[in-house]
């Protein structure tokens, strides 16, 4: 996943967005009145992302975010756009409530990792591992620092973003669990690529495993729920918006019930969203009434915001903002980025035309 860096320093960028002819027709059909393209720099490189890009759409019910990553194929991006169209047209499905958060710890040195945990106020941490910029010993040192900062009762998750083979994960996870201290890992998120590998890994190591990419890219939510995995990471916009995501979870739980499989822990998470997308995540977490710490605290990873006021992080919880309002004085997005998103919307429009 490569980044396309704006020369913007630490400032967010925002420009009115004009779609191409097919995109304009799609936007009109979906009730989109205005659109903007944004670029927000990250504080640290996060899975090779240094600038988060995407579109903000305005419909009759308000703002929605459509920000599929650049390396996502058009059919996957189309689901994300479908969710944004639904939110822009109909709004969020439920009133928003505060939710508990995990702090996300990217690939940083142990001292920085500990500082991020202490500053967050969270009692759960998700630590990125298996990144090309670090090795297993670096990951172990980062996890030990996180444990020291959390204290004995805090929970630690790790996220490998499907980077390991089954053999690599089988070797690495016990060492990471040992580094996490008493109680080990709450779960390991997407250590391997396929659902079959995830299930085997959990059985062989005894370490709880969660699925993420298997759900948001592979479309296997029902299969994950029925598989016996310990947790399922649910992201609102990649699944077509909060209302559709909640419906898919309910369908999956009903389908799995006759088999007697224990329901997985449901963890609502962010896809490096702006405050607009995080509000959709808050709606999903509120609707699912999950008690698990949510991965919705990712605004801390950004240097700036496109909103006048973002959902607020306080004492390990995310609180909704009353009104989503875009800043009016941000520098413009580069012509290259605007054109890339124009081309992306044309691709998405072609997919919608075939439906």
Automatic annotation (TrEMBL):
- UniProt xrefs under SMART domains: MR_MLE
Query: Cross-referenced SUPFAM superfamilies, in alphabetical order?
Result: Enolase C-terminal domain-like
> One Pfam family, short name please?
Enolase_like_N
- Domain named Mandelate racemase/muconate lactonizing enzyme C-terminal is located at 110-208
One MF term in the entry's GO annotations? metal ion binding
Q: Which CDD domains match?
A: OSBS
Keywords carried by this UniProt record: Metal-binding
InterPro entries per record? Enolase-like_C_sf (IPR036849), Enolase_C-like (IPR029065), Mandelate_racemase_C (IPR013342)
* Superkingdom of the organism of origin: Bacteria
Q: Which Gene3D superfamilies match?
A: Enolase-like C-terminal domain (3.20.20.120)
Q: Which PANTHER family match?
A: O-SUCCINYLBENZOATE SYNTHASE, O-SUCCINYLBENZOATE SYNTHASE-RELATED
- Please state what the protein is called: Mandelate racemase/muconate lactonizing enzyme, C-terminal domain protein
Q: Which organism is it from?
A: Mobiluncus curtisii ATCC 51333
């Amino acid at each position: 996943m490569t980044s396309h860096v704006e020369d913007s320093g630490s400032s967010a960028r925002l420009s009115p967005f004009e779609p191409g002819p097919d995109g304009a027709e799609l936007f009109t059909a979906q009730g989109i009145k205005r659109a903007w393209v944004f670029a927000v720099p990250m504080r640290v490189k996060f899975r090779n992302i240094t600038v988060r890009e995407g579109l903000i759409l305005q419909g009759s019910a308000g703002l929605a975010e459509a920000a599929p990553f650049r390396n996502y194929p058009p059919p996957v991006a189309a689901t994300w756009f479908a969710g944004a169209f639904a939110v822009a047209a109909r709004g969020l499905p439920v009133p928003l409530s505060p939710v508990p958060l995990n702090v996300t710890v990217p690939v940083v040195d142990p001292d920085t990792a500990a500082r991020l945990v202490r500053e967050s106020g969270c009692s759960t941490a998700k630590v990125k591992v298996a990144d090309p910029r670090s090795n297993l010993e670096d990951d172990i040192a980062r996890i030990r620092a996180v444990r020291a900062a959390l204290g004995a009762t805090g929970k630690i998750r790790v996220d490998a973003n499907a980077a390991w083979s089954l053999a690599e994960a089988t070797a690495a996870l016990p060492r990471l669990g040992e580094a996490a201290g008493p109680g080990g890992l709450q779960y390991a998120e997407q250590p391997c690529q396929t659902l079959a590998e995830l299930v085997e890994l959990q059985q062989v190591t005894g370490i709880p495993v969660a699925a993420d990419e298997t759900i948001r890219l592979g479309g296997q939510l029902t299969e994950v729920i029925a598989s016996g995995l310990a947790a399922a990471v649910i992201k609102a916009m990649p699944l077509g918006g909060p209302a559709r995501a909640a419906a898919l979870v309910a369908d999956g739980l009903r389908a799995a019930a006759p088999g007697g499989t224990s329901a997985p822990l449901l963890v609502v998470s962010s896809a490096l969203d702006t405050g607009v997308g995080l509000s959709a995540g808050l709606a999903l977490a509120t609707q699912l009434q999950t008690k698990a710490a949510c991965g919705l605290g990712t605004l801390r990873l950004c240097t700036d915001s496109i909103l006048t006021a973002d959902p607020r992080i306080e004492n390990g919880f995310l609180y909704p903002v009353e009104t989503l309002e875009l800043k009016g004085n941000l520098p413009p997005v580069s012509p290259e980025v605007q054109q890339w998103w124009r081309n992306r919307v044309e691709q998405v429009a072609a997919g919608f035309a075939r439906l």
